[in-house]
Amino acid sequence: MPVQPLPSDLLYTVCDLSDHGFETTEDLEEVPGLVGQERALDAIRFGTRIKRQGYNLFVLGPPGAGKHTAVMSYLKSEAQNQDAPSDWVYVNNFNIAHKPLALELPSGRAQKLKEALRSALDDLKLSIPAILESEEYKTRRQAVEGEYANRQQKAFETLNKRAEDAGIALVRTPSGLILAPAENGEVIKPEEFNAKPKEERARIERVIAELQKELGNIIEHIPSWEKEKHERISELNRAIAVSAVGRAMRAIKSEFAHMKKVAAWLEEVEEDLIAHINLFAGNDGREDGREPLFGAGEEDDRAPMRRYEINIIVDGTHSENGGGAPVVFADHPTLGNVLGRVEHVSQMGALLTDFTLIKPGALHRANGGYLIIDAIKLLREPFVWDALKRALRSRQIVMESAGEYLSLVSTVSLEPEPIPLDLKIVLMGDRQLYYMLCAYDSDFAELFKVPADFDDVIDREPENDLLFARFAATIAAREKLLPFDKSAIARLIERASRLAEDTEKISLLIAPIADLMREADFLASEAGAKQVTAAHVDAAVEAQISRTDRLRERSHEAIARDILMVDTEGEAVGQVNGLSVLQLGQSSFGRPGRITARVRTGGQSARIIDIEREVDLGGPLHSKGMLILSGYLAGTFLPREPLSLSASLVFEQSYGGVDGDSASSAELYALLSALADLPVKQSLAVTGSVNQMGEVQAIGGVNEKIEGFFDICARRGLTGDQGVLIPASNVKHLMLRQDVVDAAERGMFAIYPVAHIEEGVELLMDLPAGTRERNGEFPPNSVFARVEAALTRFAAAARPPMPPRGGAKEGGFRLT
Question: Where is the signal peptide (predicted)?
Fold first, then answer.
């Protein structure tokens, strides 16, 4: 039986919601989660609850499936039932300033520690200056200073007395103390000294030498006396500091005594405060010989006190989730934004830093909870992927910089103490990226053991229709849209089937459906409607197409003006209308194209030449389809002889790359037409791939391809003979535009379902294809008989001539 055109009811499957008891989305209960994603949600539940290393998640699925919204919503609800994370702070390391210490505190205690320490320091700023200005302190300090001043004065007075008795004067000059001869208390002039007898001069010189030695001893002891003085003053200051600092620190030490590491650091703070008592007297604390804080800015008014600051890295009470465990989305996952960073300040041409300039990263903020990262963004940033894997394996956050990673920076910088890491990483990406990571990164499967695969479609069944309607009601309620009536919901379901390219499925790509609802709501509001109807949804779809339709119109206009040569009437040998789909941005449309074939005897170079492949415009799938044609011809014709065929196939006026095998059936029809020397109807277009057995296989984009040829025919005028041959297995994918359905219903345009290449041959060439009979021949006047006859002629022409009967002489020998 010849293939019959499809009835119009198979070209568009209408959604019937009459059995569901609702009129608008206001009558429907909202859906708490996503529709049809039970497998993915079960995986997310498992991955977030199992407390084992390596069970991080990779959420995979197509863009627009609602992955981010679903994961964020679930994790936030899960996090609300979990404990808030610990607080983490960085503090000064009084022993090694460039290695700040990390302290862990219970949630909410870091701010209390910071406030308590600041309060203690404020008390010391008031109490210690008051003590240092008190009369008691001044008296005790003056007594110590007076004692050493008297000791020094007494030594000089003794020396001066001895000098006077010996007639020597102790003279103070700008260069120091000197001893000189004197008479009556006056230093004598050199000429007077030289006029004295030799024995007198020798005596005076001897006495001066002895006194000079004694003066040297006194001067030599002065530094030790000063040191003793400073030590006694330091002891006095320490005694005062121990009492004052002890009082100030007693309460804070008592409050945090049960935190061993915090208590130990507070002891170091107390010792350092005692040692740097001069900080509270307006002194920078350096006169005691200790080093200043690493990289502290001298121009900062708080610089002397920065060593006692507390840098809060994580405050568990202010988590990203507003309570419970944190849920953090790292939108810009650079190395510093993920691991944290040490900032620097410029002062007088130098870059300085200290522990107060350590900034947390996403790992710090998500520690104890969940961190969500877009996988492709993560992989695009240098060094972050390897650093993240190191953090997950070591279970600690080690701050790294790109400069240190590349060994470009050799200057001394901070080395903050690592912080223990305990969180779940949730990566998001498409399926191809997930499979590539599994294949090419051996660490990936070890660290991300849980894939959560979001599905693309669900079955189009009555219960799922109602579930989809409830989901649409959820979007309408959350977006504050007008109510959608039953007809509008039906149209949304039909549109979702079109997006799924399957009448038996509904697309789960939430983003395009939500966009369509927003735009339909806008059009309904503009029209003053109280509800969104099917007409508003249709108008929104047309508006979406119109906004991206310029290239489609230009392409079809070029065909209509015969710039691109596509015939929609008449017949031609070796020429078939093929169909392709162009995807440009958000626009997807079908475009007809002419496919032609030329044949001749092959001889020793028998082959089918794919011109697209020869000029590197054909992709691997297209080349595969061409090789399948050779297999089909070899298996169908001349089973006992090799083919001696040379043929060329080309997409005419194709100036870009061609890939996919959806045109292989059209190419085969063109080749068979050229071999049989039979014309092909140009009023028909063809799509579908073919296998070596001649079966026509399903292809993608069938709706766009049909509509593309229909638009050209409608532009030139429908004749009633035009149509498209599609694979029979694609019938369940048809969700055509209403104007195409109407034309088919009027008999002005036809869609033919073809299961085997013979069916297409008969439609295109108006002759039976032919089946090989018992005698091994095809029926006379069949298409395949003409094809095999042509191949037989080619084989005979390519066969080498037989040698003369009786043999021939060659080189003196007879060949027999």
Answer: none
